[in-house]
Amino acid sequence: MRGEQLFNLACRHHDSGRFDHAIELLTQILGENPNMGVAHGLLASCLLAQNRIVAAEYESGIALGLEPNNPFVHEVRARILIVLQRFDEGVVRLEAQRDAAFVLRRDDPVLRQQA
């Protein structure tokens, strides 16, 4: 199976709550492509779901370093910060991503045509 197919399968496992299966696939993916930031982000989300907070925080840091503009990575990091009771940091991160998404949508020519 190719990397993209493995990643899609890992996403399906994550979305179905099969975090152990997703972690296994993500570990394989990252062994072959350690610079795939979104895979580190998904791994962080899986680890967070298993209450492995320190590992989740570590993986989210790697993900942010590799993909600093990825909204999913920021959302995962915000959830981790909230679990760590760093509410202000988590909320600020979520609000920044919401504002960035609004700007992107406002500039979308397809959405302008529908307005």
Question: Would you mind describing this structure in some detail?
Answer:
The protein has one domain (3-114): Serine Threonine Protein Phosphatase 5, Tetratricopeptide repeat. It is globular and about 40 Å long. Helix content is 81%, strand content 0%. It has 7 helices and no strands. By secondary structure, it is mainly α. Residues 103-115 have low confidence and may be disordered.
Mean pLDDT: 86
The assembly state of the depicted protein chains is: single chain
Would you identify the CATH architecture?
Alpha Horseshoe
Task: Kindly report how far apart the N and C termini lie.
Answer: 43 Å
- Whole-number count of domains: 1
Q: Assign the CATH topology.
A: Serine Threonine Protein Phosphatase 5, Tetratricopeptide repeat
Gross morphology is globular
Largest sheet: none
H/E series: HHHHHHH
Portion in strands: under 5%
Number of H- or I-type helical stretches: 7
Radius of gyration: 15 Å
Total strands: 0
CATH H-level superfamily title = Tetratricopeptide repeat domain
Structural category: mainly alpha
Low-confidence segments: 103-115
Look at the structure and give the CATH class.
Answer: Mainly Alpha
Helix content: over 70%
